[in-house]
TrEMBL record:
Any one Pfam family match given in the protein's UniProt record, by short name: DUF6576
Residue ranges annotated for the Peptidase S54 rhomboid domain, each copy included: 67-213
Subcellular location: Membrane
Sample GO molecular function, one term: serine-type endopeptidase activity
Keywords associated with the record: Hydrolase, Membrane, Transmembrane, Transmembrane helix
Protein name per Swiss-Prot or TrEMBL: Rhomboid family protein
Annotated membrane topology: Multi-pass membrane protein
DUF6576 domain mapped to chain residues: 255-292
Family per similarity comment: Belongs to the peptidase S54 family.
Transmembrane segments: 21-39, 75-97, 109-128, 140-161
Species this chain originates from: Sporocytophaga myxococcoides
Lineage: Bacteria, Pseudomonadati, Bacteroidota, Cytophagia, Cytophagales
GO cellular component term, pick one: membrane
Length: 295
């Protein structure tokens, strides 16, 4: 199977939203980098600059109204040709996104990523258009990068599973709530630096992640509008037979037919005591989370 077939296969799968998000970011970055290299080589950067600036979210409303698509393109794009920008974001997204996907499902991970990007964009635009300190310090291109979306996923995972451990090289096991706190603190420090607007956008994404989980525990899914839009486009581009299957699987995922009863929860808790939390299936973790959210 060649690379193109591998990519087609991944995008045909239904429950791998994390992989798809990472692939989109990587494909956009590689394409932009290749264009940058050729533009440099031929000594003509006009095409690259045109595409690159249209990926950025402008700081001023007047520019944003001319490039409204940047509201979505900015959090699927990264600084070219700097590889460390995308590498840091994708590693963070992968580590924490796996937890969100495993415990809350593919649909909510995608919603978190998109809502985090939108929250970061809202903070960014408000700062550079209504706060005097920022109004005369707007960056030339604007904002680019998935950091606000990644921060939403990181903080959501830490809010959902604060005592979950990641084993860090040279450090050992560290609770993810402390890792999330470190990222937040770094952006807080940067809120008065050269990339002040970008760092405050990160904090906006982080706040969205926290609110998302807190509301979900109350039974309020803030990601439903995103899921509705996603399902609408899925219906447009999917054959009827596949569409019915997708809808049924979503119904099963969202409702699980009924709320978990005490007998089911006791069985899950008994399994934890015997084999540990890691022995639970994805469905059992989702059922346990649903039960805990009702308390």
């Amino acid at each position: 199977m060649n690379l193109l077939e591998d990519l087609k296969y991944q995008f045909r799968q239904k429950e791998n939203g994390l992989t798809k998000i990472i692939l989109i970011n990587v494909i956009v970055y590689i394409t932009g980098t290749i264009l940058w290299v050729f533009s440099k080589g031929f000594g003509d950067m006009r095409l690259f600059d045109l595409i690159y600036i249209n990926q950025h979210l402008p700081a001023h409303f007047s520019d944003f109204l001319q490039r409204p698509w940047s509201l979505a393109t900015y959090f699927f794009s990264h600084t070219v040709p700097n590889p460390f920008h995308i590498l840091g974001n994708m590693l963070g997204l992968y580590w924490f996104g796996r937890l969100v996907s495993e415990y809350l499902g593919n649909r909510r991970l995608i919603s978190l990523y998109i809502l985090g990007g939108l929250a970061g964009a809202a903070i960014y635009l408000l700062l550079y258009n209504f706060i005097p300190y920022f109004m005369h310090r707007a960056p030339l291109y604007g904002m680019i990068g998935a950091s606000a979306s990644v921060y939403a996923v990181i903080v959501a995972a830490a809010t959902l599973l604060p005592d979950y451990y990641f084993h860090l090289v040279f450090i050992g096991p560290v609770r993810i709530k402390y890792i999330a706190a470190f990222f937040i603190f770094v952006s807080f420090i940067g809120s008065v630096g050269m990339n002040a607007g970008g760092n405050l956008a990160h904090l906006g994404g982080a706040l969205l992640g926290y609110i998302f989980i807190k509301q979900l525990k109350k039974g309020i899914d803030l990601g439903k509008p995103v899921s509705a839009v996603s399902e609408f486009f899925n219906k447009l581009f999917t054959r009827r037979k596949i569409k019915v299957s997708y809808r049924n699987s979503e119904k099963s995922f969202n409702n699980e037919d009924k709320e978990p009863d005490q007998k089911e929860i006791d069985a899950i808790l008994d399994k934890i005591s015997k084999s540990g939390y890691s022995s639970l299936t994805k469905r059992e973790k989702e059922r346990l989370f649903r039960a805990s959210s009702k308390k």
